Amino acid sequence: MEVQIGHNSESVTKLAADQLKALIERIERQEEEKKAISDDIRDIYAEAKGNGYDVKALRTIVRKRKQDPAAREEQETILETYMHALGMI
Description:
Strand content: under 5%
Shape: elongated
Low-confidence stretches: none
Oligomer: single chain
Structural class: mainly alpha
Order of helices and strands: HHH
Radius of gyration: 25 Å
Number of domains: 2
Number of helices: 3
Largest sheet: none
Helix content: over 70%
């Protein structure tokens, strides 16, 4: 990105390049932290599996706990209604 303002265009261009580099470096650091956290979460699930827990069930519980309680209840009611209609419960 090149921004030109009169005779200071070179310093403005350098400033824009420095800002861009700083932004990219911040993104890269966050991506590294995200990968480390993802690896930690994977290790926790592996530990749970090693202790006999069903990882798929744990992932479902984690996902459901993130939901709004009213939305979760509505979704579960619909699922139960469909399962009942299909003779599954």
